[in-house]
Amino acid sequence: MKRIPVGILGATGAVGQRFVQLLENHSYFEITDLCASERSAGKSYKDVVLWRLPTKLPANAANLEVKTCEANTGAKVVFSGLDSTVAGEIEENFARAGYAVISNSKNHRMDSDVPLLIGEVNPDQIKLIEFQKKRFGGDGFIVTNPNCTTVGLAMVLKPLDEAFGVERVVMTSMQALSGAGYPGVSALDAVDNVVPYIEDEEEKVEVEPLKLLGKVYGNEVKFASFKIDAHCNRVSVRDGHTETLSIGFKKRVTTTQVTRVLKNFRGLPQKLGLPSAPKEPIVVVEEANRPQPVLDRDINGGMSIIVGRIRESNVLDINLVLLVHNTIRGAAGAAILNAELLKARGII
Ligand code: NAP
């Protein structure tokens, strides 16, 4: 099959590097353009990137010349891992110029005609693209994936909401350092410490699941109406966000029912057999002391949400722990799966 040329905006960052790594031998997509700031432009990728991943810098990217983020790349599909201070305007420029923009950044997630998409959770939001194309006056559009903490939360809440009706959620996160990009949190703040504040994070995590689990009516999404309290903390872990959840449901539930619903959850990416779709979107681990980031974050290539410690709550109904690989399922892997779904639907 002829592969689709793709570009990466923000290719030098933590998420951009994951794109380069995950797209190295992709069966649908081939990297042809790498873009970043003026600081990096004009040099070969290998000379400007501070490669922080434990695999070799892919040869197909190493010698590409990094460009600035102008909407004149040969590739008509671009993945964005841009810093949010610049992502809003740059992504919109690309969409207006007719490009398909598959973004990780927060800037357009809440735009009413922009899908906030997880293939397993809400593929119906793809319908919004038609309205966006009209707004941009061409073939260009933006599709976003949620915040890295939201992805784990929404994937677990979706099947539980369908089965039992979610009413209330209290979520406490222990978020990895790579979630702050590179170089991110200073070592003196990170080591031997927990930072109980991540700017804007709780606001995003409290609202994004409501759009993800909402319903599409015409050109907009009616948000789900349950309530979420989020407490977000930065901890000294390299990759992998851990979240503890207490969930209240409309119906009475048992831990056995919750376990069964989570284990049996499958979505459209699994049905279509998309290349990045994990066989099991949610893996339930039985050991009392799991999931743990260092042991479990790479299960199924970092694309599954790992759930454990499902037990009764004294305050709400059910408690559990989940783990999401923040730069794979929480960022680059999620965007690549979205692009695969758009290709399978004939949109790119
Ligand atoms: P990062 O490591 O700081 O990388 C930022 C990227 O943006 C770099 O490639 C940088 O290029 C580029 N950039 C900065 N200023 C620019 C400008 N003026 N013009 C063009 N490019 C510019 O950040 P990150 O952690 O990869 O995050 C990227 C985005 O993904 C953010 O919006 C973040 O919120 C989101 N996200 C991150 C995660 C995660 O786990 N890290 C998860 C989900 C979503 P230079 O190297 O040339 O400066």
Question: Can you give a write-up of this model?
Answer:
With 348 residues, the chain is an alpha/beta fold. The chain has 12 helices and 15 strands. It is 31% helix and 24% strand. The two termini are 15 Å apart. The model has no long low-confidence stretch (mean pLDDT 97). The structure holds NADP nicotinamide-adenine-dinucleotide phosphate. NADP nicotinamide-adenine-dinucleotide phosphate (NAP) is lined by residues 10-16, 36-37, 39-40, 69, 81-84, 86-87, 104-106, 147-148, 178-179, 181-182, 326-327, 330-331.
Number of strands: 15
- Summarize the amount of helix as a percent range: 25-40%
Low-confidence stretches: none
Q: Which homologous superfamily in CATH is the superfamily of the largest domain?
A: Dihydrodipicolinate Reductase, domain 2
Sheet-strand content, in percent, reads: 15-25%
Task: State the secondary-structure class.
Answer: alpha/beta
Termini distance? 15 Å
**Helical region count?**
12
Q: Spell the H/E element sequence.
A: EHEHHEEHEHEHEHEHEEEEHHEHEEH
CATH topology of the largest domain: Dihydrodipicolinate Reductase, domain 2
- Give the total of domains: 2
Reported for the largest beta sheet, the result is: 7 strands, mixed
- On the 0-100 scale, what is the average pLDDT? 97
| Major sheet strand order | 8-11-7-12-15-14-13
**Which CATH top level class of the largest domain fits?**
Alpha Beta
**Ligands present:** NADP nicotinamide-adenine-dinucleotide phosphate
Level-2 CATH architecture of the largest domain: 2-Layer Sandwich
Radius of gyration: 19 Å
Shape: globular
